[in-house]
Amino acid sequence: MGGRLGLSDEEKDEMIVTPWEVKGRVDYERLIREFGTQPLTDELLRKLAKYTGEVHLQLRRGLFFSHRDLDTVLELYEKGTRFVLYTGRGPSGPVHIGHLVPWIFTKHLQDAFDTRLYFQMTDDEKFLVDDERELDETSRMGYDNALDLIALGFKPRNTYIIYDVEDIDLLYDIALEVAKRITYSTAKATFGFQESTNLGWVFWPAVQAVPCFIHKKLTGENVPALIPAAIDQDPYWRITRDIASKLGYFKPAQIHNRFLPGLGIGGKMSASEPDTAIFTVDSPDVVKRKVWRAFTGGKSTVAEQRKEGANPDVCSVYQYFLYLFEEDDRKLAEREHLCRTGGILCGECKKDLADRINRFLAEHQKKREKAKDEIQKYHIKR
Ligand code: TRP
Asked: Which ligand 1 atom sits closest to the C-alpha of 89?
C-alpha cells in the first residue's frame, strides 16, 4: 500500500478493469472504445423486444450498455438458428446482490427464448489467481453459490451447472483444442501475465472458453452462445472469438452489464470491506446496519439538505433503487425529484431500501434453502 501514498487523487482514481481487479472510477464509454465492443443502441433493444415482449428494466435503465454480436445472434435466430446462454461465477466467497444482476437478466432471456443455460463455477480459477486460497474452499463455495442461482427460479430442464474441478473430464478435450491455438504472446498481451504468473493461471483462460462451445459436444447442435456478463470478463471472450471459427464454432456473443456499485464512498464495493456489499445470506439486522452506513449524496445537515437538495447521481442508495429495488419508473423519478429538491432525507431512503432488500432476501433465503434438495438436478452430469 505504501507505494500508493505518493499518488495524486487522480492517479489513485485511475481505472483498472481486468477479470481479476476492478478499481477506480469506471468510465464505460472508454471501456467500449478500448475493448472494441459496441454500444447497445435503441434500435437493437427494440429488435430484442420483438422476442421478449418488453424492454427489460435492466436494459431500460442502462444497466446493460454494450455488446458483441448481439445483432448477429438475433439475425441468425430470425432465420432459424437458435442460441444457448452462458454465464458463470468465480466462487471466491458468498454471493452479493450485485452478482444477481446479470443472472436475473439471463433468466429473463432464458424465459423469452426458451433456451439452454450453461453456468460455469470456476473454483479452479479462484484457486489459481489467489495465493491464499485453498481448492477445497473454492469448490465448497461453488456448490454454495449455486444455491443463489437456483433460488432465482432457473429450471433444471434447461439449466446446466458446470463445477470446473468436478467436471474437468467433460471440459478437457475442448480446453486443449482452444489452448493449442492461442499463443503465449497473445495471452500475455490480453491478460497482462508477468514472469511471476503461475502456469495454471496462464492455461486457465482456455477453460473459461469451453462452455461457449460445449453444446455441440453434448447435443450435436452447433449454435452460438450469448453471454450476459459484467464487462470485466471481456478479455476472455476476445481470445475465444479469435479462435472460434478455426475450431468450427460460432463466435460467442456478449451483452455487458455495468458493475452494481457498492455502499462505500463513490460506490466502492470491496471484498476487504464486507460492509460495502450486501450478501444474499445477510440477516435483516446486518442489512439495516450496512444500508445505514451507506454513502449517499446527502448534505451534512438537515437544514442544508432541505434547502439545497441532495445528489442522487453519486448516491449508492439511489443506485440500488435504480438497478434492483424500484421497478416502477414513475416512482423512481419521483424519488429522484424529491431528493434533488430536498423533499426527502437520506434516512428515509435508507429505511425504504433496507425494508425492500430485507423483503427480497427473506424470500430469496427460503428458496435458497429449498435449492439444497434440488441442486443435483442442475448439475451438468446428472
Ligand atoms: N471468471 C468469472 C469470475 O471470476 C467466472 C466466469 C466463468 C464467468 N465463466 C463466465 C462469468 C461466463 C461470466 C460469464 O467471476
From this structure: 5
CA of 221 to the centre of ligand 1 (A): 23
Percent of the chain with pLDDT over 90: 88
Cα 296 to chain center, whole Å?
Answer: 23
Nearest protein CA to atom 10 of ligand 1, as residue: 88
Amino acid at 89: R
- Count the neighbouring beta carbons within 10 Å of the beta carbon of residue 258: 21
Residue nearest atom 7 in ligand 1 by C-alpha distance = 88
Tens digits of residue pLDDT in 319-331: 999 999 999 999 9
> How far is ligand 1, taken at its centre, from the CA of residue 87, in Å?
6
> pLDDT by residue (tens digit) across 7-40?
555 555 788 888 988 888 889 999 999 999 999 9
Distances (CA, A) of 340 to 308, 344, 345: 8, 9, 10
Residue spans of alpha helices (H) in the chain = 9-12, 28-35, 42-52, 57-60, 70-78, 97-113, 123-129, 135-151, 164-180, 184-191, 199-203, 205-209, 214-219, 234-244, 284-292, 302-308, 316-320, 329-340, 346-371
Which of 86, 119, 120 for mutating ligand 1's site (highest number of atoms within 8 Å of CB)? 120
Ligand 1: residues with CB < 6 A are: 19, 86-90, 120, 122, 125, 208, 227, 229, 233
The string of pLDDT tens digits covering residues 340-380 is 999 999 999 999 999 999 999 999 999 999 999 999 999 99
Bridge-based pairing state of the strands 21-23 and 38-39: unpaired
Residue 80 backbone class (left: φ over 0; alpha: ψ -120 to 50; beta: rest)? left
| Phi, psi (deg, nearest 5) at residue 354 | -60, -40
Inter-axis angle of helices 135-151 and 346-371, to 10 degrees?
Answer: 100
